[in-house]
Amino acid sequence: MQTDDLMEELSRMKWENEKLNDMLQIKRKLADEFQIDNFSNHGYCMPKEIKSNVSRVHVRINPSDTNLVIKDGYQWRKYGQKVTRDNPSPRAYYKCYLSPNCPVKKKVQRSANDPSLLVAVYEGQHNHHPTGGEISVAAAAGGGGSSSPGTTPASLDLTDPIICSRMQNAIAEKMVSSLTRNDSFTAALAEAIAGRILNDESEDNYNDCF
What are the start and end residues of every segment in region (Disordered) (predicted)? Predict the structure, then answer.
């Protein structure tokens, strides 16, 4: 009787192991399909996107303030300053140093037509997250948008759990949208679901027989 129990337990463990192996293979297949699609969709376009990733941000300041600093949630190292021919106010040059390999640079200068307006030009795209806290929406994307002259950009508090939740939902929706556009991923997912249903039905039928 003990031998029969051991054989039954061994058979059950073998069946569970095969099922886990099948699920692992499906997971690897889905991961490979997603990586291939992600490379084909973005791999050759990335250099073009980096080259064109230049944006301008306007920030209203006190005219008496001579500090050419814009708080945008990132840490910057000033590496130069010079006076340009078309503007009596000096132009400051900064490089992001939150990450050693971050390529983003920015130039900050007062507007030649309005001394109470700082103009920042961002070049590149951050490869890391900001430090957090209060971030100017116009500059939060590392040069991903610009505010209208004469207005103060709105602020985004990243410590607010509601805002963080909304940002996570938006990222999840974007990932789902990207995956569903991949025909190979959709087919593999449908195959995996169908196989799981058939396995469950087979297991139920087997249990009903005993």
Answer: 131-155
